[in-house]
């Protein structure tokens, strides 16, 4: 009710706040306008009370008057900022809606057929209101576009754009492991192995603390596998083997997490990494070691159908062929010696 000397707008403001809260709870527009309006109503009420005080219609002590002045100095700038932010969100939301992006969730994945439109909309939205989630989504779009690029320069440019977007997103929200893991993978795509390793290490700490379901360690293992393949291509076999063993170690560390979530991606990823390592061992004529790797893979493959996704049988056939050639040469040498 209205107190003696109080403002008649106070109960009206309370009714407005309740109504806005009810509407927001019923439809959940996922906008920031409702709290902005609530803040604006509260600020207008305080300004109105201040005008009443200046006209002498309220018996307010000097101490209370100073408190009112201080509150107004804090609320009015916040109200202006809230309105500016709300306008920015409206403009950004309109740009996103034009390309069909109606919800900004952490697990959003762009449609390949609308990738260019999504990039354009996100670039405009980020230019007006650069939130950490929009920057992460824009980085993901750049990352996917890099995978579709046919020329090396275009691919590199898209990867650099993705890295810049992920970095800015992480700067705005350092506790977002999704952006960290995507940044680490993108750094690996440009062969920045050391920084990729450091970002993966930090991302896995964040993921385990905040979102245990986010199983990104297999991506870390894949990065080391790619690093090993690059070293192998340069002819540095010892370095390649060291990175392969690190990749297998990382993959084995997260096996229990994937089992708990019944995620088949672990076995596929682990098998692919191990096959590359077995191929290196076969090329180095270390056939016994390669055979042990294949034995473990076939033992694991009995529980899941991974042969088609990893071409395990095909690679094992090439290994058996190498073994047969080796035994043939060995028998020829024995016969020649006899």
Structure description:
With 338 residues, this protein is mainly alpha-helical. The chain is 78% helix and 0% strand. The chain has 15 helices and no strands. The longest helix has 37 residues, at 62-98.
**Tally of alpha and pi helices:** 15
Q: Which blocks of ≥5 consecutive residues have pLDDT under 50?
A: 1-5
Instruction: Give the biggest sheet.
Output: none
Provide the residue-averaged pLDDT: 76
Portion in strands: under 5%
Classification by helices and strands: mainly alpha
How would you spell out the order of helices and strands? Answer: HHHHHHHHHHHHHHH
How much helicity do the residues have?
Answer: over 70%
C-alpha-based Rg, rounded: 31 Å
Q: What is the approximate shape?
A: elongated
Gap between N and C termini, in Å? 114 Å
Strand segment count = 0
Summarize the structure.
Helix content is 78%, strand content 0%.
């Amino acid at each position: 009710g209205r107190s003696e000397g109080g403002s008649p707008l106070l109960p009206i403001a309370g009714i407005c706040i309740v109504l806005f809260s009810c509407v927001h709870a019923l439809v959940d527009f996922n906008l920031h306008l409702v709290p902005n309006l609530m803040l604006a109503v509260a600020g207008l009420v305080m300004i109105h009370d201040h005008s009443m005080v200046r006209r002498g219609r309220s018996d307010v002590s000097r101490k209370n008057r100073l408190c009112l002045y201080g509150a107004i100095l804090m609320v009015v700038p916040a109200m202006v900022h809230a309105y500016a932010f709300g306008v920015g969100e409206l403009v950004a939301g309109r740009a996103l809606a034009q390309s069909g992006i109606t919800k900004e969730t952490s697990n959003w994945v762009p449609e390949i057929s609308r990738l260019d439109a999504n990039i354009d909309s996100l670039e405009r939205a980020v230019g007006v209101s650069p939130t950490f989630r929009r920057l992460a989504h824009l980085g993901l779009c750049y990352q996917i576009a890099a995978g579709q690029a046919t020329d090396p320069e275009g691919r590199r440019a898209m990867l650099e754009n993705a890295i810049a977007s992920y970095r800015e997103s992480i700067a705005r929200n350092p506790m977002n492991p999704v952006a960290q893991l995507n940044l680490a993978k993108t750094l690996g795509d440009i062969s920045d192995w050391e920084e990729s390793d450091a970002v993966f290490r930090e991302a896995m700490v964040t993921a385990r603390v905040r979102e245990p379901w986010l199983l990104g360690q297999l991506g870390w293992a894949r990065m080391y596998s790619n690093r090993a393949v690059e070293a192998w291509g340069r002819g540095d076999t010892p370095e390649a083997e060291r990175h392969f063993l690190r990749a297998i170690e990382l993959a084995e560390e997260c096996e229990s997490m994937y089992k708990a979530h019944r995620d088949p991606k672990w076995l596929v990823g682990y098998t692919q990494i191990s096959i590359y390592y077995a191929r290196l061992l076969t090329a180095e004529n270390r056939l016994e070691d390669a055979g042990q790797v294949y034995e473990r893979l076939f033992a694991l493959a009995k529980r899941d159908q991974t042969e088609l996704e990893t071409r395990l049988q095909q690679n094992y056939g090439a290994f058996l062929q190498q073994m047969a050639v080796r035994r043939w040469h060995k028998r020829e040498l024995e016969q020649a010696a006899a």
